[in-house]
């Protein structure tokens, strides 16, 4: 049996932040001034997004969760300082509580104009803020195996990240409405199982050949083998309110990848479930967050999500110390106890009946560890 290589499971984290007018608390199209200033300081770690009211950041390649924590904290701190100097605020939530997408400007860039031209209102209304976690996997055959198996756990981790209960001034009844908005895009959601990396690449090449896409980055699934990097990329989560929430979620994705790799190294496989079944759990996570009952397909029964999260932490426990992730994963217990960003947003709204106060709360959490 080959010696497991846990050093390959590096972390890269991308977060999307909202730019806020401090007076009205509306989203603010800022003509990418924050991005321009951010790039002077942080180079390509800061990027524009399709809507001008969005700033995207990305960490360096981090060897463990602690490195990622310092990098995300630095990025949030720098972006907040730049915004403050411009008289603007920033926050992290999957949707803005009340701003309308139709009053927000699109970034002047060929790629975004092309997407809007093709997808029309689905693209213009896609004013959402996500968290993307890249986990390093050196071998692409192993990467497709991990992506296939990790699909089962996507709703569990998604439930932890739920942070978008409001949309255009309405309480949606969902803990994460962001995914409902993104569902309007093609090639989103839980992917199918692929028999091999060759089967996946044949699928991508067919889409390119038939002019469905011009490159594989227009496959926006909840998890994908990245077309250009040696990573498995997890894209299902809302951007969390706080830094430690982001790091706990990233560390959990990293641990899931390492555990599935370890099992494969021992000639063991995790059961692969149908996309249609996993989608049932994704819907429940979107609607109810960590208060949901998810389906344990092995036992064919509903189980409280909090219980399944504890079982998931037990499942990955034998790789956690190899990854130096124990401290980061401890914070999951805090989320289970105190609630997700969505739970906290709803609590503020129920107490104050003010969505402006919810925006103030979102901003207040941005730099908290």
List keywords for this structure.
two-stranded antiparallel sheet; 13 strands; globular; alpha+beta; seven-stranded antiparallel β-sheet
Q: Report low-confidence residues grouped into runs of 5 or more.
A: none
End-to-end C-alpha gap: 40 Å
Give helix % range.
40-55%
Query: So what's the overall shape?
Result: globular
Strand content: 5-15%
Structural class: alpha+beta
Radius of gyration: 20 Å
What does this structure look like?
The protein is an alpha+beta fold and 369 residues long. The chain has helices spanning 33-42, 65-85, 110-119, 121-124, 140-150, 154-161, 178-182, 197-209, 243-265, 275-288, 305-320, 326-338, 341-352, 355-365, and strands at residues 11-20, 46-48, 54-58, 89-91, 130-136, 166-167, 170-171, 188-189, 220-221, 223-225, 231-238, 293-296, 301-304. Strands 1, 2, 3, 4, 5, 10 and 11 form a seven-stranded antiparallel β-sheet that branches. The protein has a two-stranded antiparallel ribbon with strand order 6-7. The chain has a two-stranded parallel sheet with strand order 8-9. Strand 2 (46-48) and strand 3 (54-58) form a beta hairpin.
């Amino acid at each position: 049996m080959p010696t497991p290589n846990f050093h390959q499971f590096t972390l890269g984290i991308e977060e999307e932040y909202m730019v806020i007018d401090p007076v009205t608390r509306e989203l603010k199209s800022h003509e990418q001034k924050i991005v321009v200033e951010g790039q002077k300081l942080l180079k390509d770690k800061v990027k524009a997004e399709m809507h001008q009211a969005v700033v995207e950041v990305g960490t360096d390649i981090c060897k463990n969760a602690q490195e990622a924590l310092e990098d995300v904290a630095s990025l949030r701190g720098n972006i907040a300082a730049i915004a403050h100097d411009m008289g603007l605020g920033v926050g992290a939530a999957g949707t803005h509580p009340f701003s309308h997408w139709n009053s927000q400007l699109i970034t002047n860039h060929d790629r975004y104009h092309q997407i809007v031209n093709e997808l029309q209102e689905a693209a213009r209304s896609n004013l959402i803020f996500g968290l993307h976690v890249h986990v390093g996997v050196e071998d692409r055959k192993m990467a497709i195996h991990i992506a296939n198996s990790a699909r089962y756990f996507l709703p569990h981790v998604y439930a932890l990240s739920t942070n978008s209960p409001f949309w255009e001034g309405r309480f949606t009844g969902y803990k994460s409405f962001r995914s409902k908005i993104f569902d309007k895009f093609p090639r989103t959601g839980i992917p199918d199982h692929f028999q091999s990396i060759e089967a996946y690449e044949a699928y991508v090449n067919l889409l390119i050949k038939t002019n469905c896409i011009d490159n594989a980055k227009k496959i926006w699934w909840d998890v994908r083998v990245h077309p250009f990097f040696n990573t498995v990329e997890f894209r299902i989560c809302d951007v969390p309110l706080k830094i430690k929430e982001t790091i706990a979620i990233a560390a959990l994705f990293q641990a899931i990848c390492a555990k599935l790799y370890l099992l494969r190294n021992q000639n063991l496989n995790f059961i692969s479930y149908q996309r249609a079944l996993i989608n049932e759990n994704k819907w429940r996570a979107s609607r109810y967050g960590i208060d949901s009952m998810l389906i344990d397909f092995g036992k064919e029964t509903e189980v409280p999500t909090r219980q399944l999260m504890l079982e998931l932490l037990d499942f990955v426990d034998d790789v956690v110390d190899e990854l130096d992730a124990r401290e980061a994963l401890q914070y999951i217990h805090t989320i289970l106890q105190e609630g997700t960003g969505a739970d906290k947003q709803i609590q503020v709204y129920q107490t104050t009946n003010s969505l402006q106060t919810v925006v103030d709360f979102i901003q207040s959490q941005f730099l908290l560890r």
